[in-house]
Amino acid sequence: MSISLRRTTRALLLCTGIAVLVACAPTRSNLETSTWLIDPKRTGEPRKPNTDFWLKVGPVSVNGPFDGKSMVYRLADQRYEKDFYNGYISTPAEMVSNATRQWISDANIFKAAVNQSNTFFPYYALQINVTELYGDYRNQPEAVVSIHFYLTVLSTGGQNPILMSNLYTQRVPLKDNRPSTLANGLQQAFATILQRYEADLDAGTKNLPKPLVQMKSTTK
Q: Phi/psi of residue 148, each to 5°?
């Protein structure tokens, strides 16, 4: 057997051995899925209630393409991308509704704050529209959150049901492009918006008009 033939044979045997070892090794996906919860918590002392009436939080609407469980990245002015491997444990509407209700409940501005599915009849309602919820990677990475709050009174007739309309946008710089960093940035941005809205809500509900249903009952 020639030297070249022996070398070729050894090379083939070596490749065969490596192939057998690789085939026996456990397989693992190159991409793993991760889910995150955006759930900021209020700290500090509760405020003095401005009313003895209840507040119902909801419904919450989220503009597309931010309404799904996938994280959304903005890569150019007109280019957005969904990450199907990194997302949220709940829908953005559910996370915003739960966090906002708990935050306002802890703030103690109303007698109580209940969720949309609660059977208690409230006199005031808070409707929420999330217009932006994404990571902006066009230049310096940033977490971006925009939320519009509508405080309404349950009324009929000619009374304007909208008592307050507040729109907030918050951007938080990110130190890197990891999904976990974006999740923390979105939570920080959401917390800042809730802090700002709590202050505005407290100032704007010092002299709330009585609901029309309550006014009718008191005039009988």
A: -110, 125
Tokens of 131: 């217009």
Q: For residue 105, what are its two tokens?
A: 């409940």
Mean pLDDT, 10 residues at a time, over the chain (220 residues)? 51 43 36 92 95 91 97 97 96 98 96 80 89 97 98 72 95 97 98 98 90 49
Rounded to an integer, what distance in angstroms lies between the CA atom of residue 89 and that of residue 39?
11
The closest alpha carbon to 133, from 83, 170, 100, belongs to: 170
8 A C-beta contact, residue 143 and residue 135: yes
Closest CA to 110 of 205, 178, 179: 205
C-alpha span between 163 and 155 (Å, rounded): 11
Q: Cα(50)–Cα(75) distance, rounded to whole angstroms?
A: 44
pTM here? 0.81
